[in-house]
Amino acid sequence: MHPTPQKLRNGHSAFVPRCPAYKAYFRLTPDNRVRVFFIKRNLPAEVIQLHFGKGLFEMPFALELPPIVLLKLGLESFKIISGLYPIQEDLEFISVDF
CB neighbours (10 Å) of residue 52? Predict the structure, then answer.
């Protein structure tokens, strides 16, 4: 996690941990699910173990895909529901279907 400054109500700043970001690719599957591919060589081993090590990816909150991603996928809307999602893994990628 990387600390980022955040303004508090009293006007002071505090450093709050923020989740790191990693490049991912999105694809629409034949059954209209969104598949997210993570490039394994770009992920630190501890990130792979923490987020994918049990064979499941936890999505702790619901998320609407941003308009630019929807446009690229040819969708009008798509909401990822919070929950546990099985992962698929090969030599190059870890993928999750939502």
Answer: 19
CA 3, CA 14: separation in Å to the nearest integer?
Answer: 9
pTM above 0.85, yes or no: no
Mark out the alpha helices in the chain (DSSP H runs): 45-52, 67-73
The residues that bridge with 28 in the sheet, in sequence order, are 34
> ∠ CA(45), CA(47), CA(29), 5° rounding?
110
Q: What's residue 1's pLDDT?
A: 42
Dihedral sign for Cα atoms in the order 30, 32, 33, 36 = positive
One-letter amino acid of 10: N
10 Å CB burial of residue 37 (0-12, 13-18, 19+) is: middle
Do 98 and 80 contact (CB within 8 A), yes or no?
yes
Residue 19: closest CA among 40, 36, 3, 38: 3
Q: Using DSSP, state whether 5 is helix, strand or coil.
A: strand
